[in-house]
Amino acid sequence: MESITNSINLHVTTSTSNKFGNIMKSDKNGTYYSLSLENANRDERGYVDFEKMQGIRGVALANIVSNTNEVVMGNNKKLKSMITFNDGKRKEIYYIYVVT
């Protein structure tokens, strides 16, 4: 996933159902990674709901699965849309709205 801060954003699938995972952000060398966002939504083809805003430095949108325990048991996903203003550096992701 794209980044403007010389780091790598990487999605790691963490669910046995392959329906969500974590977004990890690297240091500028791509050596060390830290958690940026938990339970990021992904579809069956592996596409992640994560989008950098073109022309707005450090702003990104993502959808997270808010009911992960229910999804693992076969229920439908409930999504929350999130936004970051600092390229996801310190897990300072802010809620925009809830999609049910």
The amount of helix comes to: under 10%
Termini separation comes to 26 Å
Look at the structure and give the mean pLDDT.
80
Could you say which structural class the secondary elements and strand pairing correspond to? mainly beta
Instruction: Estimate what percentage of residues fall within beta strands.
Output: 35-45%
Low-confidence runs of at least 5 consecutive residues: none
Largest sheet: 4 strands, antiparallel
Q: What is the overall silhouette?
A: globular
Q: Count of helical segments?
A: 1
Total domain count: 1
By DSSP, the count of extended strands is 7
Task: Return the string of H and E elements.
Answer: EEEEEHEE
Compute the gyration radius: what is it? Answer: 13 Å
Major β-sheet strand ordering: 4-5-6-7
Concise structural overview:
The chain is mainly beta. The chain has one domain (9-99).
What is the element layout, followed by pairings?
Elements: E1 9-13, E2 20-26, E3 33-41, E4 50-52, E5 60-65, H1 68-72, E6 79-84, E7 93-99
Antiparallel strand pairs: 1-2, 2-3, 4-5, 5-6, 6-7
Write structural notes for this entry:
Helix content is 5%, strand content 43%. It has one helix spanning 68-72; strands spanning 9-13, 20-26, 33-41, 50-52, 60-65, 79-84, 93-99. The protein has a 4-stranded antiparallel β-sheet, with no helix packed on it. Strand 4 and strand 5 (60-65) form a beta hairpin.
